[in-house]
Amino acid sequence: MTVLIHPTAEVHPLAKLGKGVKIWNNAQVRERAVIGDATSIGKNAFVDIDVNVGSNCKIQNNVSVYLGATVEDGVLLGPHCVLLNDRFPRAINADGSFKSADDWVVSGVTVRYGASIGGAAVLTPGVTIGRWALVGAGSVVAKDVPEHALVVGNPARVIGYISPAGRRMSVVGRDGDRVFLSSPCGFELEISEVVNPV
User: Fold this and answer.
1) Alpha carbon separation from 74 to 8, 56, 153 (Å, rounded)
2) pLDDT tens figures, 14-51
3) CA distance 25 to 44
């Protein structure tokens, strides 16, 4: 599988690209970033220093993935979404001096296997998006998202659960605080209502 890099893309020589990676117009991949096999990085996307992106991911146009982020295999990052990394963003220190790399702590985002992030969503520093979760377009995620959860809004909140095929799941039974869910595609899930309300 041949790597494709558009002539206008900027890929640092110290970046590591897997087999079949595609990097499109005006995208930038910084030093020591690792991009897994068959991942596509869309037009104007930015992948920062030391970021790890898994295999078979789709990073769509104008996405920004900042230092500290980990993106596991099979993740979709929709157009214009942002993975932030600074809990206390300032251009200057309290004394008015320009803030340098030594004046802040990286707090990267983690997006687990198979999750999808909708267009223009913002993932705030330090959050983890669970496996197969779905973040709705335009959402602002301020806390961790459980596996298979569907979250929307600002701040994002759980409104349901999603199968690996992307189908909305329905409650089919309850036993105490256990909730049993099923999707039209036959996928079944058990959650704790105490931890993950439906």
Assistant:
1) 26, 5, 24
2) 999 999 999 999 999 999 999 999 999 999 999 999 99
3) 6
Structure tokens given for 93? 């220190």
Render pLDDT for 44-74 as a digit per residue (tens, 0 to 9).
Answer: 999 999 999 999 999 999 999 999 999 999 9
Closest CA to 115 of 139, 93, 88: 139
Dihedrals φ, ψ of 103, to 5°?
A: -100, 15
What is the chain written as a DSSP string? ---EE-TT-EE-TT-EE-TT-EE-TT-EE-TT-EE-TT-EE-TT-EE-TT-EE-SS-EE-TT-EE-TT-EE-TT-EE-TT-EE---SS--SB-TTSPBP-GGGS-----EE-TT-EE-TT-EE-TT-EEPTT-EEPTT-EE-S-B-TTEEEEETTEEEEEEB-TTSPBPEEEEEETTEEEEE-TTS-EEEEETTTS--
Q: Which of 86, 129, 135 is nearest to 110 (CA)?
A: 129
Asked if residue 166 lies in contact with residue 116, where contact means CB atoms within 8 angstroms, the answer is: yes
Angle at 144 between CA 140 and CA 147, to 5 degrees: 110
- Residue 104 sits at φ, ψ, to 5 deg, of -155, 165
List the 128-129 sheet strands across, edge first.
16-17, 34-35, 52-53, 70-71, 110-111, 128-129
Query: How far apart (Å, rounded) are the C-alpha atoms in residues 47 and 54?
Result: 12
